[in-house]
Write a structure and sequence with these properties.
Blueprint: E1 6-8, H1 14-25, H2 43-55, H3 59-67, E2 71-76, E3 79-86, E4 94-99, H4 110-117, E5 130-135, H5 156-169, E6 175-179, H6 182-193, E7 198-203, H7 222-236, H8 241-247, H9 249-258, H10 260-272, H11 290-303, H12 311-314, E8 329-331, H13 337-343, E9 349-352, H14 362-365, H15 367-385
Parallel strand pairs: 4-5, 4-6, 6-7, 7-8, 8-9
Antiparallel strand pairs: 1-2, 2-3, 3-5
Length: about 400
C-alpha cells in the first residue's frame, strides 16, 4: 500500500465549461404544475438560477478561490481521498478534521477555514487556532473523480477509519473533529473508533433526538413535549428523497449525469427544504448566495458524482450520530435543553449551543456561528485540561 500524498489543483477543462453552458441553454423545461413549492422546485425559480449559471456565473473565480487553499490526494483503502490541509501560522495550533455535509462539498467550508486557522487575522484570540484538514467524503467530487467510487460499501465506520488513517498519515497524533449532517455521523463515529487520538468531537446538531425510550422524556414539560411532537411531524414530512435514495439511487443518477438542470433542481430542493426545527413550515429563503450554491452544483456536475454522493442513504448510513462517552462531545447548534438532556444520557456533553441553525448547510449560511461554536467547545476542553483542574 502506498502512502503517497500528492499535491492537487482543480483545473476543469474549458471544453467541460462550454459543454455545461450549451446544455443549460438547450434545456427542455417542464410545465409548471399547479401549486408552488409544495409540488417541488418551481419552474420560474429554477429557470432564473439556471440562466445565471449559464450566462453570468464565473466558475474560474470559484475555482481560484478553492485553489487558494492547499489541496492534496492520497489513496486509502482503495479510494482516492481529496482533502484541503490548511496549516495555521500559530505554532501551538491543534489539528482539526472537518467533514462537510450531504449533498454538499468542501466548498461548504470555505468561509470557516480562515477564522479557524488564522484567528489573529480575523480579530479572534490567537491562543486557540487549528491546522484544518477538510476531506471530500468518498464518492463526493474529487474523492471519486476521475474513477468511480469504490465498489465496496462506504459505511460510516469505513469513512471514520479512513479519516483516522488520513490523520495518522499526516502526522497528527492528537486532533479534534467537527462535522455537519453526514459529517456529524462520521465525526461521532471517528471519536468512538479512535478515542486515543481524538481530543474532542463537536458537531452542528443531531444529538439528543428521542429514540422512543419513555425514560428519555421523564421530567419533560408539556411545552417541550408539544415541541417534540411538532418536530416529529416535520421530520416525517418532506419530499421522501431518503427512502428513494436508499433503494433506487442509480435511477436518479442517470438524470444527474445527463442534465445539469436535473442536478441543480435536486440540490436546490435539498438546500431549500429545511428539515430542522418545528416552527419552520415549508421551504425557507435560504440565506446562501446563489454563486456558492452553483459552485456546489458545478462540482457535482464536472465530477459526475450526483449518484455516488448518495451512499449515505443507499448504504444504510443515514441516521443520527452515535452516542459515545470516550471523547468529550459538543454541538454548535444543538437545539432546546430537552435535546441536551437526552444527549447527556449517552454522551459526555461539555458544550451545547442552543441557537437555531439558519440552514441545513449552516457553515455556508452563518459561518461565524460555526466558528464561534467550534472555538467555544475547544476552549472548554482547554480549561478542563488546565493545571489544577
Amino acid at each position: 500500500m502506498t502512502e503517497t500524498i500528492t499535491p492537487f489543483r482543480i483545473d476543469i477543462p474549458q471544453a467541460d465549461l462550454d459543454d455545461l453552458r450549451e446544455r443549460l441553454r438547450r434545456t427542455r423545461w417542464a410545465r409548471q404544475l399547479p401549486g408552488g413549492w409544495d409540488r417541488g422546485v418551481p419552474v420560474a425559480h429554477l429557470r432564473e438560477l439556471a440562466e445565471h449559471w449559464a450566462e453570468s456565473f464565473d466558475w474560474r473565480a470559484q475555482e481560484a478561490r478553492l485553489n487558494a487553499f492547499p489541496q492534496f490526494t492520497t489513496d486509502i483503502d482503495g479510494q482516492r481521498v481529496h482533502f484541503l490541509h490548511v496549516r495555521s501560522p500559530e505554532p501551538h495550533a491543534l489539528p482539526l478534521i472537518v467533514t462537510h455535509s450531504w449533498p454538499s462539498s468542501v466548498a461548504e467550508l470555505l468561509d470557516v477555514l480562515g477564522p479557524l486557522t488564522d484567528p489573529r487575522a480575523h480579530g479572534l484570540d490567537p491562543a486557540l487556532a487549528f491546522h484544518v484538514v477538510a476531506p471530500s467524503l468518498p464518492g463526493f467530487a474529487f474523492s471519486a473523480f476521475p474513477e468511480p467510487a469504490d465498489e465496496r460499501p462506504w459505511s460510516v465506520d469505513r469513512v471514520a477509519r479512513t479519516w483516522a488513517e488520513l490523520m495518522r498519515r499526516l502526522g497528527h497524533d492528537r486532533y479534534g473533529a467537527h462535522g455537519n449532517d453526514a459529517g456529524a455521523l462520521v465525526t461521532a463515529r471517528l471519536a468512538a473508533l479512535d478515542p486515543e487520538h481524538v481530543t474532542g468531537a463537536v458537531i452542528t446538531s443531531g444529538l439528543g433526538i428521542p429514540t422512543g425510550d419513555p425514560a428519555e422524556l421523564e421530567g419533560a414539560s408539556q411545552e417541550e413535549l408539544s415541541w417534540l411532537k411538532t418536530l416529529g411531524e416535520r421530520m416525517a414530512g418532506g419530499s421522501g428523497y431518503g427512502p428513494y435514495l436508499a433503494s433506487r439511487p442509480q435511477t436518479l443518477a442517470h438524470g444527474f449525469a445527463d442534465s445539469p438542470v436535473a442536478q441543480l433542481a435536486y440540490l436546490v430542493e435539498r438546500f431549500k427544504e429545511f428539515d430542522g426545527w418545528p416552527e419552520r413550515n415549508g421551504p425557507v429563503a435560504e440565506p446562501i448566495g446563489r454563486d456558492l450554491l452553483l459552485t456546489t452544483a458545478s462540482l457535482y456536475w464536472f465530477t459526475g458524482t450526483g449518484g455516488s454522493s448518495s451512499w449515505t442513504y443507499y448504504e444504510g448510513a443515514a441516521g443520527m450520530p452515535v452516542d459515545q462517552r470516550d471523547v468529550p462531545t459538543g454541538a454548535t447548534h444543538g437545539g432546546p435543553a430537552l435535546l441536551r438532556r437526552i444527549a447527556e444520557r449517552g454522551n459526555d456533553v461539555v458544550y451545547w449551543g442552543d441557537g437555531e441553525s439558519p440552514s441545513h448547510m449552516v457553515a455556508m449560511a452563518a459561518p461565524e456561528s460555526v466558528v464561534t461554536g467550534v472555538r467555544e467547545f475547544f476552549q472548554v476542553l482547554l480549561r478542563r485540561s488546565a493545571p489544577g483542574r
